[in-house]
Amino acid sequence: MHSFRYHNDRLACEDVDLAAIADAVGTPAYVYSAGTIRENFRRLDRALAGLDHQICYAIKANSNLAILNLLAAEGAGFDIVSGGELFRVLRGGGSADHCTFAGVGKTRAEIEQGLREGVHCFNVESEAELAFIDEVAGALGVTAPVAIRVNPDVDAGTHKYISTGKSQNKFGIGIDRVESLYREAAARRHLRIRGVQTHIGSQILDPAPFAEAIGKLIPIVEALKARYAIEFFSIGGGIGIVYDPALESGSPAWWSASDHPHRITPEAYAEAVVPLLRPLELKILLEPGRFLVGNAGALLASVLYVKKTPAKTFTIVDAAMNDLIRPALYDGYHEIHPLERASVREPVAMDVVGPVCESGDFFAQDRVLSALEAGERVALLSAGAYGFVMSSTYNSRPLLPEVLVNGENWSVIRKRQTYDDLIRGEIVP
Ligand code: LLP
Predict the structure, then answer these.
(1) Deepest in the core among 137, 224, 236, 391, taking most CB within 10 A?
(2) Which residue in 56, 99, 121, 357 is the catalytic one?
(3) pLDDT, tens only, 85-106
(4) Average per-residue pLDDT for the chain
(5) Residue with CA nearest ligand 1 atom 24
(6) CATH number of the domain bearing residue 103
């Protein structure tokens, strides 16, 4: 579901004309729909009504305080991967006891921070980390709540950079080592076993790998429940979204498996996993990121120049790979639409590129779009997840503003960086 629609040939987000936002804040800029985020959260929550569950939003997808605040108000918990993310959740109105602290490389300072604030659980990714959390908790004179992340060795059928549940990935503990690691956890004085966790990857469009991973873990979870009275099973995140509606019936070239044509819905996901999980009679945690915010965001940009060469037409826009890196890093696809639709325009095959000095700086290659002219503005859709949060100031380009639309209203939820912001903290000795 998303809320970017044309009204009289003008692209709107909910009830706000995007050109008006672009006039007011300039381009490039990120715009998010609060209504879409709320609707996505509620729809997933409803689909899982048959389970005792808690959605813990994976804030790495989009960690703006306003978004955290909105989801906290909906009743979301949070999945965090750093001390900085914990700080954000607390500032955004979330509470630590609804945070699961994940990540393969937690530092002493981060573990101490998590213990001090009272996170719900640390998701442990290795033998060494388990021992270290025990040591840090012991030094503080407290007990650390832990869950072990199990790597089920399942192919999620997604891009290789965002597939995490195969045995060659750095994540989690192999199924053969789970029993001994829980035994070790139980024997450690400063740990309290609280649950078990898994996550097989991101942008997964087929419910089958989720069901396969859960199916593999069910006997283990049952045994852990009987032996250690665990309270929860976290089934991770990874629910994919539609980036290119035209591809719903086919498969983007970059899927590692070419037989995953259908779009996943919360209902289809629930249908695949709920019957497996219900008999466990455990609290089920989920860690969706992209599903909640991905289709809720767009990146607005202006066309600077149209450059025609014998080989190609390049439409050069003012946004670049530093603002949205998904096309360069994952061959990510983002629909591109003009904010104001001109009446008659020839379709043209073009590359839509940014100003950065790298050939990887593109948003679309050889894409047939209605011709664009300098001065026109466009929206790159489905940029709400892993968009702004992965941006950088490469080429000394200030970080973009973010805007949140709510019905007929909109607010700036992050100001555009200034040149002074850009050099803050730098010192010439
Ligand atoms: N839980 C864990 C342990 C994760 O590692 C992740 C994402 C999530 C939950 C949330 O996954 P989601 O529901 O958003 O798929 N930058 C990449 C995606 C990286 C995903 C990293 N881990 C992209 O733009 O496609």
Answers:
(1) 236
(2) 357
(3) 999 999 999 999 999 999 999 9
(4) 93
(5) 386
(6) 3.20.20.10
What is the domain count for the chain?
2
Say which CATH number the domain at 20 has.
2.40.37.10
Ligand 1 contact, 202 CB (< 6 A): yes
Q: Which atom of ligand 1 is nearest to the CA of 197?
A: 3
Q: Could you give the 3-state DSSP secondary structure of residue 30?
A: strand
Separation CA 106–CA 102 (nearest Å): 8
pTM value?
0.95
Same domain for 282 and 303, yes or no, is no
Q: How much distance in Å is there from the Cα of 36 to the middle of ligand 1? A: 19
- 3 state DSSP class of 256: coil
Instruction: Among 238, 266, 288, identify where a domain stops.
Output: 288
The secondary structure of 338-351 as a DSSP string is ESB--SS--EEEEE
Is a pLDDT exceeding 50 seen at residue 259? no
Q: Is 52 contained in some domain?
A: no
Domain of residue 216, residue span: 63-288
Given the DSSP bridges, would you call strands 377-380 and 336-338 parallel, antiparallel or unpaired? antiparallel
Instruction: Please report which confidence band the pLDDT of residue 249 belongs to, taking 50, 70 and 90 as the band edges.
Output: very low
**Pocket flag, ligand 1, residue 125 (CB < 6 Å):** no
User: How many A from CA of 237 to the centre of ligand 1?
Assistant: 7
**Who contacts 415 (Cβ-Cβ below 8 Å, separation ≥6)?**
401
Instruction: Single out the residue in 235, 264, 288 at which a domain terminates.
Output: 288
pLDDT average, residue stretch 370-385:
96
* Residues 87 and 18 grouped into a single domain: no
pLDDT of 169 over the 90 cut: no
Tell me whether residue 306 is exposed, middle or buried, using C-beta atoms within 10 angstroms of its C-beta: 0 to 12, 13 to 18, 19 or more: middle
Q: Could you tell me the distance, in angstroms and rounded to a whole number, from the CA of residue 295 to the centre of ligand 1?
A: 15
Q: Is the CB of 88 under 6 A from ligand 1?
A: no
pLDDT score of 231 more than 90: yes
Query: Catalytic site residue 357?
Result: yes
CA dist 42 and 56 (Å) reads 13
Residues 179 and 100 both lie in one domain:
yes
Structural element, H or E, at residue 197? strand 191-197
Beta bridge partners of 305: 316
The answer for 45, left when phi > 0, alpha when psi is -120 to 50, beta otherwise, is alpha
pLDDT of residue 252: 36
